[in-house]
Write a structure and sequence with these properties.
The chain is built from 21 helices and 4 strands. The chain is mostly helical and 495 residues long. A 4-stranded mixed beta sheet has the order 1-2-4-3, covered by helices on one side. Helix 6 (162-176) runs parallel beside helix 8 and helix 11 runs parallel beside helix 13.
Length: 495
């Protein structure tokens, strides 16, 4: 008959599962740093390190040169540039994997279910988050979002003062990345849920005093956002970014999910699992528990960049409701469920510890090896040449250009990094360029009506774009000279 493990052995097994899960997430998240936004973040971070002060006006484009710029990620950029100085691509890879692991392990600790089931749920959540794991300041937002989510139970119980915890957290957050708005959305959903629970289930809800304290601390946290080189202008960032309508047309991460893409399907699996678990589970859920999940489900359905906040808030709910559903459906198989929950036949302590250490060591070595391989300079440069106009940049370096250069949107950051002496037409700073300029870029790249007038307006003498862009065909017909061409990029000169 199965025997229950001694308490110390159960704790040891639970710790082993947690370590293995953390190493597996690190292994999943270790990847080549190639995001198109990485390059302009590095460029701005390097400029900040050199000057000793944040860049708050545009220095990098000819379309917005000298304009005020709310650089909401200045500290995140400094960290990225500093790590690149110290350890190159390897340091960036470790940063991405480390922040991804931290985010999900904070959530793992909040789950109330047996270790192996928690492990399954958090790995599923990792698959949902995976498309967002790129070397950019956004990852700081995800880590701080997870930290805030992990703090909430302690704040609710009064173990930590909301007034001591929230303002400093949001002050740091607003300097690292403009995604601090996610934190206020989470706080708003939790406070709204607490109010609803107080009205309908007072025995399970916070006191009105506790709700008022959390709301007041949230108000102070909002004021703390302005403790920033950008001052109160930081309050505008969420509205400026979301207000750029072209984002949904031109930038995939701002578009709604495409479930034909396998990498986006884990979101659907997790959502279906939650709905199924809630339908089977008999335990009544609180509004405080449900509202954040509902909010971030809606946001994720509108823009895939919100997959990660959904996964982080939904994982504890899926863990508890899913385990209750499994117990209800598979009650006749309770011995198997007990084994799954961590009970098994006794194993000699020394042998078990040896197996645990060996398994963790093997996984740790695999994670270390993968991090080194995916960030090896030769591999990174090879992949860069497949995705960015690396050879065209070399040509430009040997043939200095006189006049303004029009460029592909996704290449703007790379050009800033590799050609710091040249200004770009546009890069990934959508909040700086706004709808008007991004629409002009779309008009140009698609050779739509008025494209020639736009070229004249900006005095463009050179064009660096993909060979299959509609503008490429239009420029040929208009008599522009092809001065460079390869499989990735083509450069045109004005007639």
């Amino acid at each position: 008959m199965p025997a229950t493990l001694p308490l110390n052995d159960e704790r040891s097994a639970a710790r082993w599962v947690a370590v293995v899960v953390g190493v597996l997430i690190f292994l999943m998240a270790a990847r080549t740093p190639l995001d198109s936004d990485l390059w302009w973040h590095l460029r701005v971070g390097e400029a900040t390190l050199q000057s000793g002060k944040p860049v708050l006006t545009d220095l990098f484009s000819f379309t917005r040169s000298g304009s005020p710029w709310i650089n909401h990620s200045w500290l995140g950029q400094v960290i990225l540039a500093g790590l690149y100085r110290l350890g190159g691509y390897s340091a960036l890879t470790v940063l991405v994997a480390g922040l991804a692991t931290l985010s999900l392990m904070l959530v793992y600790r909040q789950m109330s279910a047996p270790p192996l089931w928690r492990a399954f749920v958090v790995i599923l959540a990792a698959l949902v988050c995976a498309p967002l794991w790129t070397a950019r300041p956004q990852l700081f937002s995800l880590a701080l979002f997870a930290a805030l989510f992990a703090l909430l139970p302690a704040l609710r119980a009064g173990k930590i003062s909301s007034f001591l915890a929230l303002p400093p957290l949001f002050a740091v957050w607003s300097n690292l990345h403009g995604g601090y708005a996610l934190g206020f959305l989470l706080l708003g959903a939790v406070i709204s849920g607490q109010v609803i629970d107080r009205w309908f289930s007072p025995e399970r809800a916070c006191s009105w005093q506790g709700i008022a304290q959390l709301a007041a601390a949230g108000g102070l946290a909002f004021l703390a956002v302005a403790l920033n080189p950008n001052s109160i202008a930081m309050w505008k960032i969420p509205f400026q970014t979301v207000g750029v309508q072209v984002l949904q047309q031109a930038i995939p991460e701002w578009a709604s999910p495409d479930f034909h893409d396998l990498t986006q399907q884990p979101f659907l699996w997790m959502l279906a699992g939650i709905l199924l678990a809630l339908g089977i589970s008999r335990q009544r859920r609180t509004a405080e528990e449900m509202l954040p999940v509902l909010l971030f489900t809606a946001l994720a359905l509108m823009a895939r960049r919100n997959f990660a906040p959904f996964a982080l808030t939904a994982a504890p709910l899926l863990a508890s409701a899913g385990w209750e559903a499994l117990q209800s459906v598979f009650a006749p198989l309770s011995p198997a469920l007990k084994r799954f929950s961590g009970n098994s036949r006794p194993v000699r302590s020394g042998f078990r510890k040896a197996i645990n250490l060996i398994s963790v060591a093997v996984l740790g070595f695999a994670a270390f090896l993968k991090a080194g391989l995916v960030s090896h300079p030769s591999l990174v440069e090879s992949l860069i040449r497949q995705r960015y106009p690396a050879d065209a940049v070399v040509w430009i370096q040997t043939h200095p250009l006189q006049g303004n250069l029009f460029n592909e949107y996704a290449w703007g950051g790379y050009l800033l990094w590799r050609l710091p002496e040249h200004s770009v037409f546009v890069d990934g700073r959508t909040d700086l360029y706004g709808d008007d300029l991004l629409k002009e870029w779309l008009t140009l790249i698609n050779a739509e009506e008025g494209w020639q007038s736009a070229l004249e307006k900006w005095h463009i003498q050179w064009v660096l774009i993909a060979p299959d862009a509609p503008l490429a065909r239009a420029l040929k017909q208009a008599g522009w000279q092809t001065v460079y061409a390869d499989a990735i990029a083509v450069i045109y000169k004005a007639p």
